[in-house]
């Protein structure tokens, strides 16, 4: 199976976690897109969705799936989204698509976070994939200097603006041995909106698409 086929397989497996008659949180990226396409076939069973990006909202609407503003929703039963990396503790690196802040907000509001990924995303130590940090534009250089002090090599994602009007610094060359500590340290830098580590609140379930089928890791 190709990587795209693995993503489709794992996205379809996540349909089992969709809670009928509830609001579903929907992530961003190519794996989340496969999930949106699968969700379309059971859209009559749910009350609607909250999307973690404008792109996902557009795709959901194109399937005739209702998308709510988070402020008008009391509860999200489950959040389903991809990741750039996961370790065995279900700590994640996310934000390759630049939607990390809204992803973190929707994940925080959800009762359960089911992460869907192909097997290439499972790693022993996080950090080979550059860690995205969303930054208020005027603080970009200051934050970059602070990231260097923490041992990283920040690279400005040139020409990219988040759905929130901010910029992204991707931290290269950082082996993340203590993800919870680093997540907090990065968020404590003035000018940082949030970072792509999902460790303080990790995924609850990781569905991995492998050549031997879908494997499930749980906290
Ligand atoms: C977007 C994300 C995505 O979940 C992550 O980049 C994985 O994307 P893909 O499913 O395309 O591999 O965090 O901000």
Short description:
With 219 residues, the protein is an alpha/beta fold. It contains six helices and 13 strands. The longest helix is centred in the N-terminal third of the chain and has 11 residues, at 3-13.
Commentary on this structure:
This protein has helices spanning 3-13, 30-39, 54-62, 100-109, 140-149, 179-187; strands at 23-26, 48-51, 78-81, 85-86, 92-93, 113-118, 131-135, 153-156, 167-172, 192-195, 197-198, 205-210, 213-218. It has 219 residues and is α/β, with parallel strands linked by helices. The strands form 3 sheets. It has a 6-stranded mixed β-sheet with strand order 2-1-3-6-12-13, with helices on both faces. A hairpin with a 5-residue loop joins strand 4 (85-86) and strand 5. Helix 1 crosses helix 2. The model has no long low-confidence stretch (mean pLDDT 98). Ribulose-5-phosphate (5RP) binds next to helix 2 and helix 4.
Give the uncertain stretches in residue-range form.
Answer: none
Q: Mind describing the biggest β-sheet?
A: 6 strands, mixed
Ligand names: ribulose-5-phosphate
Total number of helical segments?
6
Q: In percent terms, what proportion of residues is strand?
A: 25-35%
Topology:
Blueprint: H1 3-13, E1 23-26, H2 30-39, E2 48-51, H3 54-62, E3 78-81, E4 85-86, E5 92-93, H4 100-109, E6 113-118, E7 131-135, H5 140-149, E8 153-156, E9 167-172, H6 179-187, E10 192-195, E11 197-198, E12 205-210, E13 213-218
The chain binds ribulose-5-phosphate.
Keywords:
6 helices; binds ribulose-5-phosphate; 219 residues; alpha/beta; 4-stranded antiparallel sheet; 25% strand; 6-stranded mixed sheet
């Amino acid at each position: 199976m190709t990587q795209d086929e693995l993503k489709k397989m794992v996205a379809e497996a996540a349909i089992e976690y969709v809670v009928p008659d509830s609001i579903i949180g929907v992530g961003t990226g190519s794996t989340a897109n496969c999930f949106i396409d699968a969700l379309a076939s059971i859209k009559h069973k749910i009350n609607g969705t909250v999307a973690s990006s404008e792109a996902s909202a557009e795709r959901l609407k194109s399937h005739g799936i209702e998308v709510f503003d988070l402020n008008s929703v009391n509860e999200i039963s489950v959040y389903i989204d991809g990741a750039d990396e996961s370790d065995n503790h279900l700590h994640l690196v996310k934000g390759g698509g630049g939607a990390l802040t809204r992803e973190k907000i929707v994940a925080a509001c959800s009762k359960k976070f089911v992460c869907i990924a192909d097997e290439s995303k499972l790693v022993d130590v996080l950090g080979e994939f550059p860690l995205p940090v969303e930054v208020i534009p005027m603080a970009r250089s200051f934050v970059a200097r602070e990231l260097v002090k923490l041992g990283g090599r920040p690279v400005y994602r040139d020409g990219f603006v988040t759905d929130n009007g901010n910029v992204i610094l991707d931290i290269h060359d950082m082996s993340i041995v203590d993800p919870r500590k680093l997540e907090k340290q990065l968020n404590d830098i003035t000018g940082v909106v949030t970072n792509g580590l999902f460790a303080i609140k990790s995924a609850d379930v990781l569905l991995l698409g492998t050549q031997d089928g879908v494997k499930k890791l749980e906290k």
